[in-house]
Structures are given as structure tokens and as C-alpha cells.
Amino acid sequence: MKLVVIDFDSTLIKNETIDEIAKEAKKEKEIKKITKLAMEGKLDYKESLKERIKILKGLEKEKIENAIKRLELTEGARETIEELKKRGYKIAVVSGGFDIAIKKFKDLGIDYIFANQLIFNNGKLEDVREIVIDKGEIIDKLKDILKIDKKDIIVVGDGANDIGMFKKAGLRIAFCAKPILKKEADICIEKRDLREILKYL
After folding, report:
1. What's the 3-state SS for 4-50?
2. 144 in catalytic set
3. Pairing of the two strands 3-6 and 124-129
4. What's the CATH superfamily of 3-13+72-200?
5. Cα–Cα distance between 57 and 105 in angstroms, integer?
6. Sheet architecture: strand order including 90-98
7. Of residues 7, 19, 158, 162, which has the active-site annotation?
8. What's the rounded Cα separation, in Å, for the pair 88 and 196?
9. Distance of alpha carbon 63 from alpha carbon 183, whole angstroms
10. Is 7 noted as a catalytic residue in this protein?
């Protein structure tokens, strides 16, 4: 195995970034409902993203930055990435969330970041640039970049939008995941500590 691909929201970090942003807009209940349906596979991810951004449109960038300050790494995240790097793995974070949030944790030594980009106009949220809708397509890009095969890829995720990348990987780990993703997994971890994945590598 040469590459470990980790989902961001509710996997690498404890939070769902967009739900934290929604708190700043006082739209938490509305956004959380859509996020939940998307993660359970009951709502198309692309449509759910557009719908949530539409609700949050006009929110000041400063408030979004305040939300990002509240994001916390999942237990064992830093130690797990350090250990994986020692073992020679490349690390990618592939997220249906936002690169502005992942960049908060750039000191982790992540090799590749793929995430959507928030677009601001005059300091307010305007729209989103869709980079990651189908995570499977991102896995294909990484395979080309690194010249590796399916068997060389380990993926870790928790929600329905991770199914695309699960189908392209050699080892699939569901981390405190929704039932829809567990069905696609080789390994299911229920303890919320990312160090648990090291037992299987």
C-alpha cells in the first residue's frame, strides 16, 4: 500500500465544517438536516451542497473563519498521520467540504488536498467552486499522479459521499460511519480514535 486517503469532516476532524458555519449564520437546524440526509445517501450530494451554499449566501468571510477556528482534530489524528508518514505512505485528504477548513491543519504534513472552494464577493459568501463531487474521480487522479494501482490505495471515510472512493480502493475502512457506507467497507471501526486504523495496515 502506498497511499492513504482520508475524508475530512467527521473523520479527520470531529466536526462537520458546514454545520459549524451554519451556526454563525443562525441556520444550524436547516443545514444540519440537509447534511444528515446527504451523508445517509438520501439526498444527492451535489444538490445538497448547492442547497446549503444558497442558504448561507451572503455570510461574512470573518464569520466563516470564526467557525473554522472551532474545528478540532479527531482523537489520534495527528499521531496516526505521523506514523503513516514514518511508514512511507503518502497522505491525501479528499473532502466534499472546503479547502479553507483543511488548510487550518496544513502542519499535519498532508501531501494532497482535494476539496471545494468557497467563492467570496466583497467579503461575503457568494458561491462554491465544485472541485470534489465524485470522490471516485479524485482517486483516479491520484492513481495517475502516483502511478499506483487500486491495491495500493487505502481509504477512510464515514458517509455516503465516500462510496465513490471506496469503489476505487484496495482497502476500505469505515470510521464511525453511516450504515450505507459500512456495507461497502472491508473494516468498520466504531471507536472514535483514528489510531485504530493502524492496526489494519
Report:
1. EEECHHHHHECCCHHHHHHHHHCCHHHHHHHHHHHHCCCCCHHHHHH
2. no
3. unpaired
4. HAD superfamily/HAD-like (3.40.50.1000)
5. 25
6. 124-129, 112-121, 90-98, 3-6, 153-157, 171-175, 187-189
7. 7
8. 18
9. 37
10. yes
Dihedral through CA 125, CA 127, CA 130, CA 133, nearest 10?
Answer: 90
Cell, residue 110: 498532508
Any idea where the domains of the chain sit in the sequence?
Answer: 3-13+72-200
Sequence-separated (6 or more) residues with CB below 8 Å from residue 138: 94, 114, 132, 165
77-81 long-range contacts (CB < 8 A, ≥24 apart) are: 77/12, 77/13, 77/108, 77/194, 78/108, 79/194, 79/195, 80/194, 80/195, 80/197, 80/198, 81/108, 81/109, 81/110
* The three cell numbers locating residue 152: 495500493
Cell triple for residue 36? 444528515
Q: For the segment 7-58, what is each residue's pLDDT rounded down to a tens digit?
A: 999 999 999 999 999 999 999 999 999 999 998 999 999 999 999 999 999 9
C-alpha cell at 105: 491543519
Give residue 1's pLDDT band: very low, low, confident or very high (50, 70, 90): low
